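Lab meeting, action items carried over

1. Structure of the two-component assembly. Owner: GW. Status: complete.
Input record:
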Amino acid sequence: MRDGVFAARLGIPAVAILTEEFVTQGDFVARAVGMPAVPRVVIEHPVSGTGKENLERVARLVAPKIIAAFAEGRA
Amino acid sequence: MKSRLHTSYDEATALEELHQRGWTDGLPVVIPTVERVEQMLLGGGLDPDIILGHVGPGYGEATVEKVAVNAVMAGCLPEHFPVVIAAVRAVCDDGFDLGVLQSTTHALGPVVIVNGPAREICGNIASGWGALGPGHRANASIGRALRLVLGNIGGAQPGISDMAVLGQPGKFTACFAEAEETSPFPPLHVARGFGPDQSAVTVVGVEAPHSVIATPDGDDPDAADRMLRTLAASIANAGANSTYGGQGTTLVVLNPAHARILEKGGHTRESVQQKLHEYAVTPKRVLNTWAPMRMHPAENGDELVRAIASPEKVVVAVAGGEGIYSAVFNCWGGGEHAVVPVTTEIEIGQACELPVGPVGGAVHA
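Predicted assembly:
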């Protein structure tokens, strides 16, 4: 979330990606760093260490959401 | 009420007097007025005169009433009190070696693990994110109540009777519930002989937690074994007391994600204990080089020195959020019984109905 905000501040279109378990924390960070509406896409938790096949499955699910976030001008 | 009554001008003055008498842990406490102590006693539902045990190193008598006074001071609610009672009973068990545990120069304290329905009934004791950190009232208050009992009834005072060279922050409070719902293993108290519908505390006398990072690869068939070896490396090293004593009991708290990886790798709690016993070793050569004053003669340098003498000398619990960190709490090895973990039932059916209304009144300590 912090990276997304800082990238956006540099003028780089950004979408923050966070897992379900970190939604509340992500909202908190977004408020704390002064960009509560920073675009974000939520993915399942956990993804770390879940294996190549699962990571590819998650990537296929999340990629259209990220593209949509950019396309809708929310990023 | 049999405890001595003290009077003070007001609560602020009473607080300063409690600090001056050495009856606090250094932080502000709730003033234990008669009314507050009586409310706490209702939460436990036991006769105030019952002796729960004798608290080393001073071996003061821990009556239910005296423990209630300390629970009030710690900030407990009456519904927390049955857990405090069980924890006091547990640490007073002879096997826990509380007198020497509190006196040693090593930095040890009891960690309280709560299992069963009491986790919810007794004030929602946290088992998830940051369960051992700040922000959970029940966890903080219950652990602190036990600490105040150890000081005020047991007489443990730093530099006088508690000779811990540095101490550690876990001696303020250390209490969490096991994450039974997200754990792949049976609850800890069930593994230790209680029924799943019973509630229990397990106390383990250990050091501060050391956070252990493990980032397993889901495609790696040896992920579980690598994780066990990583945990073991944090247990056995030249700076760990258990390497030299070898008879103490280590505590390992797995976060649920790590526990599931171990379960996926075919492990049970018991096999995790077995593997940690096997893997937590240090070559004698290393110890000879770095710690020659210790008890390892120079010969047989290839011999491996175990930090966990047998599989039952490691307690495995599951708690925390989902992530890449678990925790190892190393141990000591001293004491007549080498500080055996103790599991005691929490009696939650004894609580009385609490009267409604504000609580205040005369100062009592």
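2. GW to write a short summary for the group page. Key points so far: The interface with chain B takes residues 21, 45-46, 48-54 of chain A (CB under 8 Å). Chain A has one domain: 2-71.
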